[in-house]
Amino acid sequence: MNKLSSEQILNFDRQHIWHPYTSMIDPLPVYAVRSATGCTLALADGRELIDGMASWWTAVHGYNHPVLNRAAADQLSRMSHVMFGGLTHEPAVNLCALLVELTPEGLNRVFLADSGSVSVEVAIKMAIQYWSSMGLPEKRKLATIRSGYHGDTFGAMAVCDPVTGMHDLFSGVLTRHYFADQPRCRFDQPWQEEDIQSMRAIIEQHHNEIAAVILEPVVQGAGGMWFYSPHYLTRIRQLCDAFDLLLICDEIATGFGRTGKMFASEHAGICPDIMCVGKAMTGGYLSLAATLTTDRVSNGICSASPGVFMHGPTFMGNPLACAIATAAIKLLKSQDWRKTIAGIEAQLKSELTPMAQIPGVADVRVLGGIGVVEMDRPVDVAGAQRYFTDQGVWIRPFGRLIYIMPPYIINARELSCLTGAMAGFARTMADE
Ligand code: PMP
Fold first, then answer.
1. What distance in angstroms lies between residue 150's CA and the mean position of ligand 1's atoms?
2. CA dihedral defined by 190, 162, 364, 418, rounded to 10 degrees?
């Protein structure tokens, strides 16, 4: 039981605790959570909310899952952490064996990192160190697409969208990379060859200084929840092969089934040279990510001076996180998750598509377990959260987007509550 009342929690929080992307002078309201089980968040004030966010793509199996709880408790009774320098353990071996098995052919070498952003830093470092080892140290720029998001650390920030990201704030500090136009061809539309021209032009002109192309495969998440044609990825892979660039796929948000495939790059049938995974990997229990690469890249890095890969975080390979991640991935594999995601996708399509008729709705799009309603103007986040919590659901919009990616365990009734609340809120915006 919490010893603090809801008010005590909120008062202290408001005075002293920073929340993501928020002001300490005039913060957006926050809601105190007492516990979470299945698809339900129980607030400290007694209200219950159906969760539409899976805690930012992570809690795919729902909260307080007995299998994951048991994995955590078992591992806790053995050891929660030991340093990874000079030591290894079964939880890391089990997890990495699963990752090598599940990811596209050739991704054999695993670097465990403590968050998605760090795994992106590691991926960028690997690409640059690889070319340096190959005697081409001038290849240290990246090429990416606009509207991407790869994390909040400096290396990752430098490849986030230059307009909606933090480039202005940190200009002069961030490395300048190459940004191609965002592919506009939608996921299910016939491919338009002109979509690749912008990236092709960049690569043709600058390949001598580019180490890698980095992008989120098929689904651009925090940069705008946009789903683009898998054929774009096919073309990118061809360009990378033709001009000898590495391809980094950031599967942190898309990995572990969210788009209907285990990894979104499978929609194009391509294999990246470096892949980042995270978020859903631990079922949302603890922060853990991984960067996988090929023999070619890892051998390349290690075959020239200094002969080692220069990264090693304190909590690398945390056994507790590895044990839970292993259990979460096995749990996913033991289910017919493709059918589950297909069911969520069908329901999202049938319940969200009619929202396109509501005045003020600019676009509706659905892919796998992701449903997006784009408004024609920014959503008032505080007002939206008040509305949604009053309706008994947890949905947190950003920008012009009202979107959900619920836990895979959500049932049809709960999902209808989420889509009903999205439609209700869009109507209130239309009435304003
Ligand atoms: N890449 C992508 C595609 C992401 O969606 C995120 C997180 N939203 C990150 C990287 C960064 O991960 P983390 O927040 O765990 O650092």
1. 5
2. 140
